[in-house]
Amino acid sequence: MSLAKLAVLGVLMEKPMHGYELKQYFETRMPVFWMINYGSIYPVLKKLKEEGLVAARREVSEPRGKIVYEITEEGRREFRKILKERIKKEVHVRDEFTLHLFFLDYLGSEEIKDLLIQKKQGNERLLAHLTEKGETLKKILPRHRFSAIERGIMHVKTELEWLNKTIGGAV
Amino acid sequence: MSLAKLAVLGVLMEKPMHGYELKQYFETRMPVFWMINYGSIYPVLKKLKEEGLVAARREVSEPRGKIVYEITEEGRREFRKILKERIKKEVHVRDEFTLHLFFLDYLGSEEIKDLLIQKKQGNERLLAHLTEKGETLKKILPRHRFSAIERGIMHVKTELEWLNKTIGGAV
DNA sequence: CCGGTCATGTAATCTGTTACATGATTAC
DNA sequence: GTAATCATGTAACAGATTACATGACCGG
Q1: Cα A166 vs. chain centroid, distance in angstroms?
Q2: What is the pLDDT of residue A64?
Q3: DSSP assignment, residue A59?
Q4: What secondary structure letter does DSSP report for B17?
Q5: What integer pLDDT is reported at residue A169 of this predicted model?
Q6: Do A155 and B158 touch (CB under 8 A)?
Q7: Is the distance from CB of A130 to CB of A149 less than 8 angstroms?
Q8: Ramachandran class of B142: left when φ > 0, alpha when ψ lies in -120 to 50, beta otherwise
Q9: Residue A91 pLDDT more than 80?
């Protein structure tokens, strides 16, 4: 199962939704952390329906309007199964930025410093944003969803620590 | 430019290589941090050649053997330009595991605990591996390539900190 | 009635992985 | 001579993004 399918199925675990609403959900409830676009959502919903993991119904009141998708019992079982499997998969430290860092020595030391300072500012903005978001979300989010945000904050702080150290060392 | 192209070009910045050698380079010099497979390497080399970013020459001694690729001056310029551009791009906290965490509350608390403990063990193994690797690489790697490894270690430690906290809280 | 946003969808494209296919060279 | 590994490449597929296309509905 693709990540996009798992993501959609996971959101539908909460309540039935239509495609447009799903997009908004990602934008407002998992901002910064996850995104998905219409070019994925509709094809994914179609496939999930074909596999019997979601059921679709057109709102009776709106004959040409929204199509609401509801996760089926089989969908819930499958979701839990796949989620567990994926989490078990190997841990990795593989991200784009790591690759970029491997090549950083090919740039000039002034350039490097500028780039790292820019990164630092970006991370500071992100930290401020997450901290604020975290405060307001603390009470209303389910336990582990909040702890996912906490985790994000911790990693951003670590990134800042590393950036400060590296910028300092680059003087 | 795709990540795979940047990765190949970045490795060729060090010295001319043939396809098979490139694969080994990633496996031995950036283990855990980055990987690339033949199905990408050869098509990427072909494209880079067409774009004039690398030059290919067949080893004279081996008429049917290795094709050595060397980065061109234009390739070097382009590599530095693209690397800077990519680093400037927005900071993100988007990874598969984050998405999975958002859905963790749909699993049972025993299952969650088991999964987190498994993750912890995986991260401990990874930390041990990186620490050992880091020790031996410290002297021989260019400055920022080493600091990329340090960064990896810091993030793995943060992950462990978060896992311990979360496992503790889940009791 | 007109602009925004709600709502659904497809087509083209890009990137990357897996699997397959082939053959040379080296070590035993 | 035969197994391992060196070496290059293609084809099929999977996953996701971007751009395009369409039209309903609502507020001013």
Answers
A1: 28
A2: 67
A3: -
A4: B
A5: 78
A6: yes
A7: yes
A8: beta
A9: yes
What is the structure's pLDDT at B63? Answer: 57
Query: DSSP code of A15?
Result: S
β-strands A54-58, A67-71 pairing:
antiparallel
> Is the shortest CB-to-strand distance from A18 to strand D under 7 Å?
no
How many Å apart are CA A169 and CA B143, to the nearest integer?
10
In this structure, is the CB of residue B54 within 7 Å of any atom belonging to strand D? no
Angle at B60 (CA atoms; ends B56, B66), nearest 5 degrees: 55
What pTM, to 2 d.p., does this model score? 0.93
Unique residue bearing structure tokens 């994000």: A152
pLDDT tens-digit readout, B107-127: 999 999 999 999 999 999 999
Q: Averaged over B51-57, what is the pLDDT? A: 96
Task: Tell if the CB–CB gap between A102 and B147 is shorter than 8 Å.
Answer: no
Looking at the complex, does the CB of residue A73 fall below 8 Å from at least one CB of chain B?
Answer: no
Any A CB within 8 A of B151 CB = yes
Q: For residue A139, what pLDDT is reported?
A: 87
Per-residue confidence at A79, pLDDT binned at 50, 70, 90?
Answer: very high
Domain B3-88: state its class: mainly alpha
Question: For A16-38, how does the pLDDT look when each residue is reduced to its tens digit (9 = 90+)?
Answer: 999 999 999 999 999 899 999 99
Instruction: For residue A153, give every residue at least 6 positions away whose Cβ sits within 8 Å of its Cβ, in sequence order, or none.
Output: A127, A130, A131, A134
DSSP line for A95-137: -HHHHHHHTGGGS-HHHHHHHHHHHHHHHHHHHHHHHHHHHHH
Any A CB within 8 A of B49 CB = no
Domain extents in chain B: 3-88, 96-169
At residue B60, the pLDDT reads 66
